[in-house]
């Protein structure tokens, strides 16, 4: 598999604990390189250089490293902090539009969990972010990174507040698992649907005003992100299948 191949290559290169592994790429590259660094020689230095919006605002920050298993997403991994994270917004210039939009799904999450003024800003400037306006992109990335870093600083190992960062992700991971990770559904797209599903469920339980759920749905749709499962091609999807995948989620254990 990919992990074994990376580890074999690092061993062939005689990488030692004092060396540094550079993770240059998106979230999958960062997770794979970070997990390899965590287990090689019981810990080798590594640096994250994320080149996608999703990786810059989410996966490169916080020290979570993981790989997928046949049973579900990110089930094999470790908490292992990089020595630093270097994000250059210029790397997003060549990012495919769909990938940029998917990363925006994670950006929206930060406006929902602890920074409503940021969500209001996104409602006004989300189109600027997605059109790659440099100032808007830098602001969205900086606010998102500060939000996640503050939560991780309070709860690095996900014993309390860090669970906030999972908003929408239990639904999202179930949708991704059913898609088979075949590219039909990107992580950020699944997160967008998961966010709306979480808000809709909260509304059904009387915990969230329906108008807030509708407001979120309008914003997601306005940016081109899916908000409901009927916007994606998963013909095998059913409530029973979603529940099956949710029971495999690592947060259940």
Automatic annotation (TrEMBL):
Pfam families: DHQ_synthase (PF01761), DHQS_C (PF24621). It comes from marine metagenome. GO terms for molecular function: 3-dehydroquinate synthase activity. InterPro entries: Dehydroquinate_synthase, DHQ_synth_AroB, DHQS/DOIS_N, DHQS_C. The keyword NAD applies. Coiled coil: none annotated. Keywords: Amino-acid biosynthesis, Aromatic amino acid biosynthesis, Lyase, Membrane, NAD, Transmembrane, Transmembrane helix. GO terms for biological process: amino acid biosynthetic process; aromatic amino acid family biosynthetic process. It catalyses: 7-phospho-2-dehydro-3-deoxy-D-arabino-heptonate = 3-dehydroquinate + phosphate. Its EC number is 4.2.3.4. GO terms for cellular component: cytoplasm. Its cofactor is NAD(+). This is 3-dehydroquinate synthase.
